[in-house]
Amino acid sequence: MFDDFTSSYEILERSGIENPLFETLRLFDLLSGGVIRNAGLGNLSGPDIDLPQVIRKRKEGIPWEYILGIAHFMGRLFVCTKDTLIPTDETRVLVKAALDSIHVQEERGEVPLVMELGTGCGNIACTLAMETQRARILASDLSADAVAVAEMNVGRYKLANRISLFCGDLFAPFHELGYEGAVDYVICNPPYIPTGSLERLDREILDNEPRVALDGGPYGIDIFRRLIADSITMLKPEGKLFFEIGERQEKLATRLLENSGGYKEIEYFTHEETIRALRAVKRQ
């Protein structure tokens, strides 16, 4: 760990890191579990690091999260590797919207059943479990390597009694397990970037994060189509589907929901005045 913030900045500056102040802030914020963005520069703690190796990797454009193997999400640290996307602040909108509904159900003494698809490092599933009293969470990912990372985070927070992990494409792992018509909530942060827009992403994202978790097809809605259609089978009547969307995709997503004939009461949720998630209620 660096002795202090100033010496860390000076080391990064001498090493030729572009914008060393910003990079030092990012590093210390990550190591402190979000202390900088939430409060200040105190209470810093984190793993010992090999400074020369860290600087070399950062100069190569590798994100801090992959260098250190940890990422911050909603006040907690999660194991994070190149097999998973790096959690983003925008996804808080999706999680908080789902939590509001889950809390109402729990207040009635019920035990909500949640399916989280494309779990990645498991940050959404773990956060849902830790922010609820009784909810049971079934989480899946297409990548076995991503599921292995999620298992580490489930173990880190001792949530194995609340979260069950599966490897497979969307709902595929659940079809033979008797969950059809039994799920209260389906939650997903799908790939939603149009294929033609991928090359316009920051190179740090495109060169490091798994493309399969970014590429949403020609219009960015390939997974939306499957998610909307297949959730109808899994959800209870009045069950709710929550998913994250990209900028200006709300009309496409709404059209898919309406055309399916299976949903009502579509509601949007915003991040910094941009619609980033929506909720739809399954019809009877």
In short:
The protein has 284 residues and is an alpha/beta fold. Helices cover 37% and strands 20% of the residues.
Mind explaining what this structure looks like?
This protein is of the alpha/beta class and 284 residues long. It folds into two domains: 5-60, no CATH class; 91-282, Rossmann fold, CATH 3.40.50.150. The protein is built from eleven helices and nine strands. The chain has helices at 5-14, 20-31, 35-38, 51-59, 64-68, 91-107, 123-130, 144-156, 203-206, 222-234, 250-260, and strands at 70-73, 76-79, 113-117, 136-141, 163-167, 183-188, 235-244, 263-271, 274-282. A seven-stranded mixed β-sheet has the order 5-4-3-6-7-9-8, with helices on both faces. It has a two-stranded antiparallel ribbon with strand order 1-2. Helix 8 (144-156) links the parallel strand 4 and strand 5. The termini are far apart.
The counted number of beta strands is: 9
Number of helices: 11
CATH superfamily of the largest domain: Vaccinia Virus protein VP39
Largest beta sheet: strand ordering: 5-4-3-6-7-9-8
The overall pLDDT, averaged over residues, is 89
Give the C-alpha Rg: 20 Å
Distance between the termini: 56 Å
CATH architecture of the largest domain: 3-Layer(aba) Sandwich
CATH T-level topology of the largest domain: Rossmann fold
* SSE sequence, one letter per element: HHHHHEEHEHEHEEHHEHEE
Overall 3D geometry? Answer: globular
Low-confidence segments, ≥5 residues, pLDDT <50?
A: 39-47
Count of distinct structural domains: 2
